Amino acid sequence: MEGHENGGKLEIVAIMSVPPLKVTEPRRVRKVLVSEEHRRTIEGCYQTVLYYEKLKEEEHGWSLAGWIVESLAMVLLDYPLLAGRLQRREVGDETELEIVSNDSGIRLLEARFPTSLPEFLALNQKEHLEAELVFWKEIDAHSPNFSPLFYVQVTNFECGGYSIGISCSVLLAEALLVENFLEKWAQIHNKMSTKNEEIKTPIFYHPRLKTPESLPSDIITRTKSKNGVQNMVFKITFEDVNFQKELWRELAMLCVEDAEKKLSTNMGSGFSLVVKESSDVIKVESCSKNGWSVKGLRLKHQITGTTWNHFGVYEVAFTEGNKPVHVSCWIGSVADGHVMAVPCLKENACGGVIVVSPPPFH
User: Fold this and answer.
1) 8 A C-beta contact, residue 61 and residue 110
2) Rounded CA gap, 253 and 354, in Å?
3) How confident is the model over 49-72, as a mean pLDDT?
4) How does the average pLDDT of the chain come out, rounded?
5) What is the dihedral of CA 235, 239, 240, 243, to 10 degrees?
6) Are strands 162-169 and 45-52 parallel, antiparallel or unpaired?
7) How far from the centroid of its chain's Cα atoms is residue 179's Cα?
8) Distant-in-sequence contacts of 192-201, Cβ < 8 A, 24+ apart
9) What is the mean pLDDT of the segment spanning 189-201?
10) What Rg value do the Cα atoms of the chain yield, rounded?
11) pLDDT band at 4 (very low <50, low <70, confident <90, very high)
12) How far apart are CA 351 and CA 247, in angstroms?
């Protein structure tokens, strides 16, 4: 944990695993189609930080983290893959990757930062500090079954206020972006809190047990955030939802061209494209701008630049009436150009494309 101008540093005081409330039966499996040369693509993650003020005296991050253990376990019943692990499977002479809902659990961390929330937000304008409010450790390519795919970090600030930082593998990110995981989690959390109003503190409430001490940093090493990576989000609307999946790739290429102009960057000769083929299959492939032709695309569509708010994270309230005062979202832990196509085929037939430009030293 790095120190800063104010002399303070982030301290992790607790870490645990949270599995679904009940055993997942039958186990869900999602195939990950990716070539051996692009296995490093599994390192990418979607990250978001939601900042909350303390509205009531009893509302603080320590108590919230205690209740989160229970509400997370409940919402994971509907999203068991988030608590699963990536594993290898031998098929003949080839090795395949798949995500299995084996209930190993998501990682939940509790932390504290020695400044007030307003001071932190002001300081963050000068330094990229919020990367410390989300925890991510890159997936071990050799033994992926030991690597969590989802992390939650609750950080307390002095004088009240807290943040909830979430890191999720890009292989599962659509759960947060289009399946309303955060909204459903917050709804469960609020209902549970209402029922437990007579209980002053939850079972998993560390300050009640003892004064929390920071954990040794060598047992909770995190992957450092890569600087200089820029993100752009596009919203695509079209009239016909019955079209071939390949057209998503062509639409994504249009977004890449627009992003290069607006970000004054170059995605390079090749970059990674992640497309959710179905609920059970996600594909990671290498793309080249020279390998696609978008001029002949026959599809009535509209592409507009948008913001992360398109996915609704700015409205998530874990305490009724207390919406976040600030939200940050980004795709992190990617070394090269990266594109995610997030189909959201609903009544208005729309979807999103997220373009991540490579860092300037690329």
Assistant:
1) yes
2) 11
3) 76
4) 80
5) -40
6) antiparallel
7) 13
8) 192/67, 192/70, 192/71, 192/74, 193/67, 193/319, 196/67, 200/58, 201/63, 201/66
9) 66
10) 21
11) low
12) 12
The C-alpha atoms of residue 289 and residue 266 are separated, in whole angstroms, by 11
Cα–Cα distance, 323 to 329 (Å, whole number):
16
Rounded-to-integer distance, Cα 298 and Cα 95, Å: 37
C-alpha–C-alpha distance, residues 336 and 331, integer Å: 12
The Cα 268–Cα 276 span in angstroms is: 23
* pLDDT higher than 50, residue 6: no
Closest CA to 314 of 117, 49, 67, 108: 49
Share of residues in the chain with pLDDT > 70 (%): 75
Q: Are 46 and 274 in contact (CB under 8 A)?
A: no
Distance separating alpha carbons of residues 212 and 192, to the nearest angstrom? 25
Query: Regarding beta strands 85-91 and 301-306, do their DSSP bridges make them parallel or antiparallel, or are they unpaired?
Result: unpaired
| Cα angle, residue 356 at apex, residues 354 and 361 outer, rounded to 5° | 175
Q: Which tens digit of pLDDT belongs to each residue from 302-324? A: 888 888 888 888 889 988 888 99
Cα–Cα distance between 225 and 211 in angstroms, integer? 30
Q: What is the DSSP string of 336-355?
A: S-EEEEEEE-STT-EEEEEE
> Where does residue 25 rank: exposed (0-12), middle (13-18), buried (19+ CB within 10 A)?
exposed
Span 166-187, pLDDT tens digits: 999 999 998 988 888 999 999 9
Q: Which DSSP helix (H) or strand (E) runs through 50? A: strand 45-52
Q: In the prediction, which pLDDT does 106 show?
A: 95
